[in-house]
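Q: Predict the assembly, please.
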Amino acid sequence: MTMVEEHASFAACPACVVVSPADRVAAIRSQAARMMLSLPGAEGAACIAAVEAALRATPGVRSARVNLSQKRVSVEADPHVIAADLIPVLAAAGYEAHELDAGMLSMTETDRQGRELLMRIGVAFFSMMNIMLLSVAVWSGAEAATRDLFHFLSGAIALPTVLFCGQPFFRSAWGSLRQGKLGMDVPISLALILASSISVYETLHSGEKAYFDAAVMLCFFLLIGRFLDHRSRALARSAAEELAALEVPRAIVLDGGKEVVLPIAQVAVDDLVLVRPGGRMPVDGVVIHGTSEIDRGLLTGESLPVFAGPGTMVSAGEVNLTGPLTLRVTAAGRDSSLHRMADLVAVAESAKNRYTTLADRASALYSPMVHLLSFSAFGYWMWQTGGDIRFAVNISAAVLIITCPCALGLAVPAVVTAASGKLFRKGVLIKNGTALERLAEVDCVVFDKTGTLTMGAPEPLGLDALPEEARAVAGALARASSHPLAQALASRLPTTEVTELREVPGYGVEGLWNGQPVRLGRAEWIGATPLALTATYLLMAGQTHAIGFTDQIRPGAEAAIAGLRAQGIAVKLVSGDTKAAVGAFADRVGITDWVAGALPAEKAALVQEITAQGHKVLMVGDGLNDTGALAAAHVSISPAQALDAARVASDIVLLGRDLSAIADAVHIARQASRRMVENFGISGAYNVIAVPLALVGAATPLAAALAMSLSSITVSLNALRLRQWKS
Amino acid sequence: MEILTILIPVSLLLGAAGLGAFVWAMRTHQFDDLQGDANRILLKDFDEKPAQDD
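A: Predicted assembly structure:
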């Protein structure tokens, strides 16, 4: 009996069973029948045809379908086809593609909500049109029995509609009432209920005024606002998910001499992981075999590669440059230094979520006023008419309907939808709902250098000063290595005959030229005195030559800086790199205000210091060392090539390589903010005209319907103006 | 005025038919990729499949 129990408990703990990596990968492979690829460059009918044709021609692919609105393609394929096989196929067709983790893209929940809202809009529209038909007859003078019949019919259509379509408002109003707050939805629900019940009462007593049309129209316009709001939220959320899914990291695990590719989540501590030259460290670990150089730029901002050999501790996110390294995993997945950093950011982020939007501020002002007006109208007319409840309730319902924030509910969502659509076409993804408004308030921009203003691809300096022979020898040696510095030289220098080329991982390349040994590599290996900036060294005929490097400027960086300055925004540069490198770069791009050698905490402190001086800071950065500053800033932007920790920390992500979109984004955000304020003004103006009418009892159902639809339409048109204006 | 007994049900029926068509279109994912469908009409090869994303 105990035996059986032991067995049962053993089997009940699947983690205790040692599964070899090969089995784990087999289990994953068999499910991979459906995948999702992101196509950032997708545009136009030609793209649909080219992508789908290219994918269908690939063996193993069963079907492919491009979704142009989401810039994605979903592929159904045999289990043995993996996304990595399809990316080159699409690259050959001329389209950049990234793998997306289909599991993270399950948007069924938000999809269902959006569809539910659409359904309610459809029903409200149907009822509104039919009631309008009947109401027009009443407004144009139908009398007695005909009017009563039409009121009855309207009521029969309107009551179920209000009950069905008003649910989102009733639910949220109930929620805010229970928290003891007066949200926007409380006056909306009150107006819906009051208008419907007073109309039923009037209909039963053959009264002249029934507000069924107003109640349904209110539902319709508010649902549109709600739907737009939901859509931009869902878009932001899917953008965030897409970015999280963009990097589906894998590791090559050595399983008894065999190489198995596993997703990071499946890697366990003490597994042996192989990192090829050019690969990024997937986990934290200790080097147990091999020598190489590693680039810590993304984590620390330093542009000079460091040596790595057995015993060196490496962190996830660093890039292996020259030789293959075998690591023993010390921390993987959630525990790795990368993810711990991301968790820290999550804490800093919550402070940002306390930002009150324009809409919140408006509704905090507006909501109590609506109630106050309506109840004082009720009280006044009760007193004036000597207790005529029917008349007083009629007036207070009219006041509620007219003051109801119909246009207010549309004012913000319409602008946000228009602005984020425009930004998306420029390759700017808004991840956070309030980021647009915060971006509009910015008056100081802090840039990171490495990887943000620069491409991370080095450019050699002073090549012309080298003797002709040295240029050729350096070119020949450089061609033997995949190190980024060597690659930069290889593409710019001539070559000559150098024999017995050999790459010494972690040090450099050596060979024989005219029978003499020549070397290209690290200063200490060559025996040269190291320079202050990023450099490689050539040993030739007993002489050493230094070749310095500078960073390549990212396209659009200068345009972005100029554009931001033109809008009156101060520009600063903060980097973890050496003083010489940062100073030289700042001169090139024309930034006078720069800080070098900043540690991650110092970057964040600097941003906080500027904030304390009363400025609103926009931080633009890409590295792990920027995450603290990104989270501390008022609003933050990172390029899509940034480390996922940085992308998580920032509010806005640039999809393209070009930085000039930043200046446009600030411009559009400011324009959008202005439109929102204008929209509040417009709906306020309508109220100023219509409310006194309602208060004195002169508001007819016709006037209510007119005021409501006119203000909603003006507000939406004003929001759309944003789309047409050239920036 | 007897004509109303015919006209009102007819107008309601027509409206309901429109609502039904809208619900059907939504249920069959026809609003999922508006940009894509606008472009697909320009393609040469005949394509009758609706968007299959879910």
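The domain at 428-456+554-669 of chain A is CATH 3.40.50.1000 (Rossmann fold). The radius of gyration of chain A is 33 Å.
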